[in-house]
Amino acid sequence: MSYLHLSFYSTFALSSLGMAFHRTHLISALLCLECMMLSMYMALAMWPIQMQSTSSTLLPILMLTFSACEAGTGLALLVASTRTHGSDHLHNFNLLQC
């Protein structure tokens, strides 16, 4: 395994561990999601170089576009939930409560 693969795998693993264990604030969960998307983008962008292909793929650009949409939606949800609930703690958000 090369150092490039190790860095991608470790970045994705650390962000998923951060998502699993540090779920107190919504902003930390959104940052972990962004880190996961960035590691996937970097892996998809380096994939043609690793395979020694001359053609570029459209998949990294699509991933980056969806990542930007996800970040905008997440920040909009953060602002809306902070306005309605008063904080961004995840334990305050109960979907079963009317």
TrEMBL record:
MF terms (GO), sorted A to Z? NADH dehydrogenase (ubiquinone) activity; oxidoreductase activity, acting on NAD(P)H
Instruction: Return the EC number.
Output: 7.1.1.2
Any transmembrane segments, and where?
Answer: 29-49, 61-80
What enzyme class is recorded for this protein? translocase
Which superkingdom is the protein from?
A: Eukaryota
* A GO BP entry: ATP synthesis coupled electron transport
- Assigned keywords, A-Z: Electron transport, Membrane, Mitochondrion, Mitochondrion inner membrane, NAD, Respiratory chain, Translocase, Transmembrane, Transmembrane helix, Transport, Ubiquinone
Cellular component terms per the entry's GO annotation: mitochondrial inner membrane; NADH dehydrogenase complex; respiratory chain complex; transmembrane transporter complex
Family, according to the entry, reads as follows: Belongs to the complex I subunit 4L family.
The cross-references to PANTHER family, in alphabetical order and at most eight, read: NADH-UBIQUINONE OXIDOREDUCTASE CHAIN 4L, NADH-UBIQUINONE OXIDOREDUCTASE SUBUNIT ND4L
Question: What protein name applies here?
Answer: NADH-ubiquinone oxidoreductase chain 4L
Source organism per UniProt: Lonchura punctulata (scaly-breasted munia)
